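From the pipeline queue, job 12 of 40. The input is one protein chain; the requested action is below.

Action: predict structure.
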Amino acid sequence: MIKNIIVLFFFSFTTLIFAQKRSLAHKDYDLWKNITDTKISRTGKLIVSVIETSTKRGDGYIEIYNTSNNKKFSFFNGFDSSITNDESFVIFKRRPKYEKVRKERKKKIKKEKQSKDDLFIYDVKNNRIFDSIIRVSSYKIPEASDGWLVIEKFKNKKTQENDKEKDTLKTKDTVKTKLGKAFQQKYALVYDLRTGTKDTIFQIKNFVLSEKGDRFYYTKKNQKKKEKDVGVFEYDIVSGSKVVIDTTKYLYDKLSVDKKGLQFCYIAAKDSTHVDSLQFELFYFKDKKLKTLVDTNDKNLRESWELSRGDNPFFSESGNRLYFYSKPKATYERDTTLLEDEIPQVDVWNWKDKMIQPEQNSKYEESKDKGYISYYNTEDESVVHLQDDQLDELIFDKNKEQKLIIGASGNPYEIKRSWYFPWTRDYYVIDTYSGQKQLALTNVALDPILSPDGRYAVYYDIFQKNWFSLELASLKKTNLTGKLKVAFYDEDDDHPMLPYPYGFGGFDKDGNTLLFDKFDIWKVSLSGEMRPINITASGRKKNIEYRTQMLDAENQNNASYNKDELLISGFDKISKASGLYVLENNKLVEKIKPTKFYINRYQKAKEGELFTFRKQNFNTFEDLHFTDNGFEASTQITDVNPQKEDFKWGSAELFSWKAYDGKKLEGIIYKPEDFDPSKKYPLITYFYEKRSDSYRNFYTPRPSASIVNPSFLVSNGYIMFVPDIVYEDGKPGPSAYNCIVSGVEALEKLGYIDSQNMGIQGQSWGGYQVAYLVTVTNKFKAAMAGAPVSNMTSAYGGIRWKSGLSRAFQYERTQSRIGKNLWEGFDLYIENSPLFGIPKIETPLLMMHNDNDGAVPYYQGIEMFMGMRRLQKPAWLLVYNDEAHNLKKEKNRQDLSIRMMQFFDHYLKGEPAPKWMTKGVNRVDKGKYLGYDLEETPSETSKIIPSSN
C-alpha cells in the first residue's frame, strides 16, 4: 500500500513538473543564445565571451571572467572585444538595442543617421567601465605593446542627439561634439589608456598598427566624391607627433608595417586619368626616408609585369623581407571607334579551356587582381621573384625566412577537374635565395606540410595510400608508413574514389610528425630512420579515436602541450563520449574521463597553461568551461540558456539494427521528455550520410535553414530518427532504401511508433534521397525534400553556380556515387533519378528549392514539381527569392520552419491544413498574405489528402 502511495506521489509530482513546462513554439526562437566568440588573454587571467541571440533578433551581452579572483563582469550588447597585452583593459563595442534599430529601419531612416555602435573600455583592476565613446566605426589595438589604441569614429551628429545617446551607466563621451567641417566626416582618435587623453586625426581613411612598436601609419582622404587622397602619415605615440610621409599621389592603399613599427610600405597611384585602370607603385619608408621599390617603368619587376593591387604586401617577422605581389600586364587591342552599345556581350566557351566559363566568372574578382609573390631584401636591397604565373600558390611560413619552400601548380590537371576527383597538383621546391624551382612531386592530391625546421615536407600520396616525407634539399622521398600493418586511409569511405587519409596531427616538440590511423596516433621521424611508434597504443583495442590538438594560432601545424605533455583528445566510438589525455612518460594519462558529454572547441592561453573548452549533450547547452591546473578540475563560467528549464525537452538514444543486406548500422532516436512507451508517437526520420557520432550534440531551437530541428520536434510530441547510411557504388537510391527503411521498420518493432503517421525529411543529398524514397515506398505519410536532385541525367551536365564547377565530378567520384560517366552508366542515372519514378508516388511531397541555389540547380526542384503536377500528385514547392542552397535570411528561415511544421502537423497529427496548402498564395498576394491561417472544416483539408493514404 505504502509502495503504491509512493509511486502515485512520484507520478503526480513528475506530471506536475511536465505540466508546468511548455512545448517550444516558433515565437520562442529569439530566446536562445549562442557563444559567438571567446578570447583568452596572454597568460589566461581573462576570458572574454560574446553571447548573442542565435537568430540575431534580439540583444546579447559580453562576459569578462577574471580567473585570478573568479569575478565576472557582464555588459549589455557588448561584442568585438580585444584584451590588452598587459591584461589591464578589455576594449569592446556595444550594439544599439535591437528594437531601436528595428524601429529606425521601419521608419526608413537613412543608414548614416541610424544608431551606431559605441566603444567601452573596461578597467580590469577596478572591475568597472573606464570610459566610453559613442558612434564608433572600428578600432585597433597593438598586439604586443600597451597603453594605447586607435579608434575610428563616424561623423558627429548634433549635440542634442549625442546627449540622448549617453550610456545608462552615466559614462561620458569626452570627445568634443563641435560641428566643425572636420567633424562632418569620419575621423580617428588616438587614445591613451593610462590617462584617458585623446588626440584627433581628421579625414581618416585607413590605418595600420605595428605589433610591438609605439607608432602607427595612416592615410587621409577628403570625403568629397572623386577628390584625391590627402596623403600618408606616421604617428609617434611617445611624442604625439605626426610626420608627413607623402602627399603627392592620387590614391594610397594596402598599408603594411613590420612588427616593431620601424618599416612601413604602401602602394600608391600617381594620377586619376583612368580610374578603372590605375597604375600602382610600391613605396618603402624607413628611418624617415621614402623609397620607390616598384614603379610603372618595371623597376624591380619582370619584363611586362606590373604591381598587383589585389593583396597586401607584408614583412617577415624579422623585417628582413618585404613580400609584395605583381602580375603580367594585360594588353588588349580595342576598337576605340565602337560605342558601348556596339560591343557584343558574349561568353565564349572553348573545349580546351582549363577552367569553364562559369568557374571563370565565379572567380573573376580574385582572378583579375591575382598577384604572384616576390620579396625585397631590406638588408641588401635585392629583389627575388618566388612565384610565376604557372604557380597557383606558395606554401611557406610568412613569418620565417625559409631557404626552401613549396610552390603548387594545377595547370596539367585543370581540364579533368570537371569530372575527376580528387583534384591533383604538381609541387615544386623553390630556393628563396635565387628564386629557382625544381619539380618535386607530380599528381598529388593534398598539399605538403613544411616541417618547423624547413628541411622536410610531409605529404600523403592518395594513390599509394601512404604518408611520405620529402627532403627539400635533395628531393629524396621516403615512405613513412608503408611497412606498418594498419591503414592510414579512411577504411570506411564509400565514395567511388580514392580515400582520403585519417589526418595529420601536427609536429611534436622534437620535430617528428604525428599521423592518424582510424584510432591511434603514430610518431614518425621525417628521415624515416626511426621506427614509427604508436604512442596511444590502445585506441583500436578500446574503440577510441585518439587525436592531437593544435591550438597555437601562430604555429598551426604544431601539436599542443600541457606542461610539456602532449595533449590528446579521445572519442569513444561506442558511447560517443569525449575524454582528454596527456602523454606522460610515453603513457596515456586520463585528464577528463569520457562520460556523457561531447567536449570540443579547446583554446589555450598564449603564454600560460589555461585552457577553455565547450561541453555538451542533447540536454546540455555547450557552455564554456576552463581549467588552469592541468585539467585536475574545471569550472563552468557561462550559463547562456537558463530558460531551457521552462520547456519540454527530450532525450537521445543510440539505436542499432541490421539493414536488409545484413550490414550492422547505427542511428539516433530522439524522444519527448515525458515519453511513455505504451503510447504511439508520430515519427519524422531525417538523414544525411552518417550522423550517429553526433549523438551527444545539443541542438539550439532556431528557425531552420533547411532541416527539422530535433529539440523542436521532441518538445512538440514527435519522435525523430536519424539513421546512418552506407552506400554501394552506382546505387545511391537503393542504398538509401536499404538503410533508412530497414531502420524505420526496426524502430516500428519497438512498439511506440505510430506506423500510420510517419514522415521523412532531408536537405540537399538528403533531399534527393527523400525524393527517391517516395518513388519506391508508400510507408511514409508525408515527405519534405530540400533542394533535391530529381533528374540525374540533366543534373550531371549542370553547373554548381556558386563555384562555377561542372557537376560531373560529383556523380562520377564523390557524393552522388554513380561511379561512371553518363554514357557508361546511363541505366544507373535513370534508375536512381526520382523524376522517372513519379508515377509510383502516393506520398504528399513538400519541397524547397531556392532561385539562387549555388549547389543544386534550381531547375531540379522544378522538374520534380512539374512532373508531380502533371500527374496530379500532391506537391508544394517553396522558392525563396535570392536565397542560396540553405536559407540565410532569418525571415525566410522562420517562414520555412512554420510551413514545414504545419505540413507535418497536418499529415502526421491530423491538424487542420493551412490555407497556403489548400488554396496556395497568388502572386498578387505575395508579401501581403502568408497563408498560415488554418482551414476550419474537414472538407477543405480532405482535398489534399490522397485517398490511397
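Job complete. The two ends are 48 Å apart (CA to CA).
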